[in-house]
Amino acid sequence: MARPSRNDIRESAERLVHEWREETYERGEAQTFWTEFLLVFGVQRRRVNAAFERHTHRTSTGGHGFIDLLWPGMLLAEHKSRGANLDDAMNQALDYIDGLPDADLPRLVVVSDFARLRVLDLDDPQRDEFEFPLSDFPRQVDRFVSLAGYTTRRFEDEDAVNIEAAELLGKVYDEITATGYTGHALRVFLVRLLFLLFGDDSGLWSRNQFADLIVNRTRDDGSDLGMWLGRLFTVLDTAEERRTTALDEDLSAFPYVNGGLFEERIEPPDTTRTMRDRLREACGFNWSQISPAIFGSMFQSVMDDEARRAIGAHYTSERNIMKVIGPLFLDELRSSLDACGTSAPKLRRFHERLGQLTFFDPACGCGNFLVIAYRELRALERETLQRLHPENVQMTTQLGFLRRVNVDQFYGIEIEEFPAKIAETAMYLMDHLENERLGAAFGVNIVDLPLTAAANIHVANALRLDWNEVLSANDCSFLYGNPPFVGKKERSADQKADMEIVFGRSSGIGVLDYVSCWYRKAADYMASGQVEAAFVSTNSITHGEQPPVLWPALECPDLRIRFAHRTFNWTSEARGAAHVHCVIIGFGIGDSGRRPVLYDYTDVNGDPAEATAANINAYLADAPNVLVAKRRRPLVDDVLPAREGNKLGDWGYLTFSAEEVDDVRSDPIASRYLRPLVGAEEMINDVERWCLWLEDAPPEDIRRSPVLARQLELVRRKREASHKTSTREMANQPGRFLELRQPDSEYLLLPCVSSSRRRYIPMRFYGAEAILRTPSTAVVNATLVEFGLLHSSMFMAWVRAVSGRLKSDYQVAAGTVYNTFPFPSLTEAQCGRVREAAEGVNAARALFPTTTLADLYDPLSMPSALTRAHTALDRVVDAAFGKRATLVSDAERLPVLFDRYQALTSAAELPGITRSAKRRGPRPRAR
Question: Which of 274, 303, 522, 627 has the CA that lies 20 to 30 A from 247?
């Protein structure tokens, strides 16, 4: 039986709610309820029938009981009579779980009393219970889609042990910097300490050898700690045959490391008792538990904020790295290994394939992506060898020969020398850890000092280097990484020059983020069609003005998005870490033969829902490959145009707050020209502002009014001093605003900037007497139909997809958002339904006459009445776009919008089809 689509599931859920909500329920009807509940998700009736009345042990009583419904591995349900206590029901359900065998443990526990549902996802690490009324079931079905075979992809957070390690090194760092020891020498010193702490616990030498040196050979007051550390650094960089016979015995016990980590000579810091105490505290931690990827975190921890912003560095946690390498290559490799089973020929072929893969990070920084990918590849190899040699016999002489995976399969480019050294060292340490794991699996000890094999890390500007000089594209398997997060306004002069070198004379590249350079370089590099790639990126390259510029500038029409993570919150465990909104885009040349995969986040801080897509476009929507270009007029002919508000240019001399306006009112002539001034700020926060509107003022009034004469003189002086020619030319008309675009009739105010926290952008009607200022837009003569369409989740999905951003706020410019929105074609009946639902929104607002729109639309304080009104409006607008099922996310609405956008723009380009052929039908003018 085919898995139902998400829309089919929601439609079935709506039918269930409609059929059950008006009934009077009895306890005996529970079986019917749960049968229909599971049928919503396409579960066959015979499977449902087998799930009822499971006899099991009850842990709390020691007796036995009957579970109302148990679908092993999937769902346990417990039902109570209407109005019963759901706490008791959940406790009873969990009591039954304790008595189940592991194979039968469900993922979901659901309890109900016919009116409410409470769900507990046992796969959720937080184990938070969620309760909602049965009437809300269609909007909550995503909590149950695992029953239909859909998956929610979870990525584990950074191990707490890594965080603890970071804090310990942070304390050492704080003590060292307190003495004035900073800069390059400090960074070198810290990384060397990390290596020593790691080696002390991971078998690079005898356990606690470094800690014993600190405890036994340095003074309690810490005064000679720096001297001993400096001497140890020199010893670690000296081969045994070159050491003197008089070398201190404790120092000579350390092996020769090689690898360049201790090659540079630095002056160690002057040290103190507290510094020695902090280092001893760090020595007490078991550093073998940490990932070498934390080296990157530690390095970031000692960078100052200014340096971090300049480089665009954001340490990448393992959780986020897995979001990249999982769908890029790791998931497929794991599936291939599983498919090999225990077949020796298949396992050998798979093993050979592992050794032939190459991995390239052209913005590798401290190597986090390379390190984690190498660890995962070694883990696959270890499991392969264990399957090939199930007897687990000792193979001391054979094990090295059998290995195929090595660090020299990994390549990187890093612009700074020191992070490149960090990357090389981290790869060495990961290689050591994996050798330890492999040796333990086969009962042998693998000696790996001094360091020999190395990752291929090149110090260079990746945007001014031919990547084929590092690794030929013909030999590259996977290209991936986390290029710098630098927005278009933060680019340095060198970074602007990089962009000109990469894009040449491509039109409009000035609007692009710096990360776009890596996409262009990748597109050129991947021209052979063999390489698969994925980059973490600033999410701004997927909305607003950037997509229509970026994708044509790649000059690679065959580029296809293989998978994508839509916007999520990028977090890091590094001290002082940056928090930004990111996307991940995996791409390749041509058709891969597999359907692309889209990861969508209903909560940017949570886990994504994973779903296959027909196509992923530049806006990371499952929709056609269209690019939304800025327009001067609306896409649909009979849609009312939007006009920008008046540009004041008065330096505040013609506008007044509620406290300032009394002075103007004291002048009987000036007071006649006072008009309310409105914009987004005034509308959303109910701020009272006034302005002098002097378009019709006769000269004698201005001469006879002290207030008008004074204020206009101040404006004139300011305009005369302006560096803009157009402003200076307006100095002789100080009573006029710089640009006049005042509506002459009632209008709907649409803010040009709005907080991204809001589910809807608040708007309000104003009369022509209210003077509109920028940055705001007026839809003149708008009706409740326009009000309803623009207050819908459909419009908000479009805003989130195509609008620009001012920091994190939406920039709702008329040209890029309103004029491009593919308004639906409405019948008279549909207009009536939209109008009625819009009236419901206004009625809900009217229940709170003293509350600002800012508070009404704050996600934490939005009243339930207003939420319900908007939900009702959403259903009507969704239906106007032809979607009867309940839609709950942008991922579901954007395909509808982009399909319509493509249809409208394609029709406009076809010969013989006039623009009037696309009219959306009559638009009633009445309010």
Answer: 274
DSSP structural state of residue 509: G
**Cα(752)–Cα(770) distance, integer angstroms:** 17
> What is the token pair recorded at 858?
């704050």
Exposed/middle/buried for residue 11 (C-beta within 10 Å: 0-12, 13-18, 19+): middle
3-class DSSP string for 66-93: EEEEEECCCEEEEECCCCCCHHHHHHHH
Cα–Cα separations (whole angstroms), residue 545 to 488, 512, 563 = 12, 8, 22
Q: 768 and 745 in contact (C-beta within 8 Å)? A: yes
Read off the tokens for 273: 């008792």
* Residue 285 near residue 162 (C-beta atoms within 8 A): no
- The residue whose two tokens read 């689509």 is 5
Distance CA 795, CA 877 (A): 9
Q: Which residue is listed with tokens 């701004």?
A: 540
Nearest to 796 by CA among 890, 888, 670, 724: 890
Any idea of the CA torsion for 202, 206, 211, 217, to the nearest 10 degrees?
-160
Buried b (16+ CB within 10 A) or exposed e, 667-680: bebbbebbeebbbb
CA-closest candidate to residue 761, choices 719, 701, 817, 707: 817
Burial class, 125, CB count within 10 angstroms (exposed 0-12 / middle 13-18 / buried 19+) = exposed
- Describe the strand order of the beta sheet including 771-772 as a list of residue ranges: 655-657, 689-692, 674-678, 771-772
The amino acid occupying position 465 is L
pLDDT of residue 308: 36
Q: Where are the alpha helices (DSSP H) in 724-791?
A: 725-729, 784-790
Residue 351, H or E segment: helix 344-356
CB neighbours of 171 closer than 8 A, spacing ≥ 6?
Answer: 278, 281, 282
Query: Cis ω on the peptide bond leading into residue 775 (within 30° of 0)?
Result: yes
Token pair for residue 344? 């020796």
Q: Token match 């540009």: residue? A: 647
What type of residue sits at position 433? L
Question: Burial code of 746-768, b = ≥16 C-beta within 10 A, e = fewer?
Answer: bbbbbbbbbbbebebbbbbbbee
Per-residue model confidence as pLDDT tens digits over 553-600: 998 889 999 999 998 887 654 444 455 788 999 999 998 889 999 998
Question: pLDDT tens digits for 264-321?
Answer: 888 999 999 999 999 988 888 888 777 777 776 666 655 544 443 443 444 567 788 9
3-state secondary structure string across 410-448: EEEEECCHHHHHHHHHHHHHHHHHHHHHHHHHHCCCCCC
> For residue 451, which amino acid is it?
L
pTM above 0.85, yes or no: no
* Residues 626, 901 contacting (CB under 8 angstroms): yes
Can you give the pLDDT at residue 33? Answer: 83
Give the span between the Cα atoms of 527 and 559, in whole angstroms.
9
